[in-house]
Structures are given as C-alpha cells and as structure tokens.
Amino acid sequence: MPTTDTSEKGLEALIVESLVTEAAYDLGHSEDYDREHAVDLAKLLAFIETTQKKAAEALELSLDGPKRTQFLHRLQGEIAKRGVIDVLRNGVKHGAVSVDLFYGTPTPGNVKAEERFAANIFSVTRQLRYSKDETQLALDLCLFINGLPVATFELKNRLTKQTVEDAVQQYKRDREPKELLFQFGRCMVHFAVDDQEARMSTHLKGKDSWFLPFNQGWNDGAGNPPNESGIKTDYLWKKILTKAELTDIIEN
Fold it and tell me: Pick from 52, 54, 56: which is nearest to 120 by CA?
C-alpha cells in the first residue's frame, strides 16, 4: 500500500491535488490575491467577464483604473456589511449595475442554469500571502468561489509532533483578526486540520477564538474512523468541499 506523506507540506499538496483532480477546482496563485480587497482578482474578473459581459464593460473591469477600484471597494463594503454568503447568494448592486457573484444549483433539465453553474470558478490557493503589513505572512490554504474567499486552512501533522491543536493555536496566536481576510463574515469558515482530526471556527477573535470539532465520530465517540484508502480527515475535501456540497451549504 503506498504511504501517504502527511507532513504539513505533504498534507497541503494532498488536499490541493485532490481538489484539483477530483473536485475540478482551479489552482489559484498567491500573486493574484488583491490584499486591499481580499479577493483573488484574476478569478473574480474572469468570472464576471465570462458570465456578465455587459456588467464587466460598464464597470470597466478589464482596466486597472478608478471604475474598477470603485467596484472593488463596493464589493468589499457589501461583504463587510452582509457577509460573504449573502453576497454570493444575492450579488451586489453598484450604481445602475447588478452583478451576480455565484450561480446556484441548477434544477434538473434547465440547460441555461446548468451552463451558469458550470461557469462558477472554485479555486484553491497554497501559501496565500494575505497581509498588507507583512507580505511574508502566508496561510497554508485558502478556498475561493469566483474570487471571493470562503474558507481558510492551517494544516499540521502528527509525524512532526504537531496536531490539530497546534493549528488552532496558530490561528489564535498568529492570525490577526483585524486582517481583512480574517474579519467576521469575510470567510464562511476557518479550518484547523491534521491527518486525524479537523476543527472549525466561523469567527476569529485572537486568543478567544472558539473552534468546534468537525469530525465524523468513531465508536460512539469523538475523532474519526480509520480510513483504509488515505488519511482520516480526507472526508473534509473529498465529501464536504466538493462543488455540489459547498454549493448546498451556501444555499442552505
């Protein structure tokens, strides 16, 4: 049986490979991340320009100029006010222009809706340099939908004597809640993960952050069952973070 590399970098590579090859995610690039507005600018612009040409033209999104910047400010303000889930569900209005930021589950047989859903860009970025102050600060993984961040990850592993608890402590100690990416409502969830357990938080508050177990349970107890085909926490990216499942979470 092939051994699984569960070092921190190995776990990161494993998750990314699974999401890209099995769940059809795009691979994001840290340099495309706009720290001023906390978006993957390349993916956001690609989604709007592909799906809503008139809106993209009206907002001059192809030009790095004042109109595009005003729209990005507007988008950021709406996420701050309403949270990313509401913005994904309902889009944003900027002046006379309405912009959709996500297309939900198509009803069976609705070809147009199926095409729209297929146009959504789910992406994962490794080692995301997110901070305006210290550009070297990097997060292990971030998931985006159409350029909007929805989930962050800190990864650890037990082979190097670090566990999910170390990942939790990293969020509490090293991730400044005032950073745009970590402000409440900006992402749906923050995951601390090792090869055996997962925990989640929806609201980072420094040392007061509260992380809940996000495990499947095992033998009427906590934790996760053994997994013959991989590591114990792979249900997270193989089942929960599929496009269909993540869409369901956003919609419901």
Answer: 52
pLDDT value of residue 160:
78
The Cα–Cα gap between 145 and 93 comes to 19
What is the rounded distance in angstroms from the CA atom of residue 4 to the CA atom of residue 130? 29
Q: Three-class SS of residue 176? A: coil
Contact between 38 and 186 (Cβ < 8 Å): yes
Alpha-carbon distance of 13 to 126, in angstroms, equals 8
String of DSSP letters for 67-90: HHHHHHHHHHHHHHHH-HHHHHHH
For the chain, residues with pLDDT lower than 70 are 1-9, 135, 219-221, 229
pTM of the full predicted structure?
Answer: 0.93
C-alpha 107/C-alpha 237 separation (Å) is 25
As a whole number of angstroms, the distance between CA 176 and CA 90 comes to 29
C-alpha closest to that of 227 among 248, 187, 188, 197? 197
Question: Which ranges constitute the DSSP H helices of the chain?
Answer: 8-21, 41-51, 53-58, 66-82, 84-90, 111-119, 164-174, 235, 243-251
What is residue 192's predicted lDDT score, i.e. its pLDDT?
97
Residue 47 and residue 144 in contact, taking contact as beta carbons nearer than 8 Å: no
The model's pLDDT over 55-111, given as tens digits with 9 standing for 90+, comes to 999 999 999 999 999 999 999 999 999 999 999 999 999 999 999 999 999 999 999
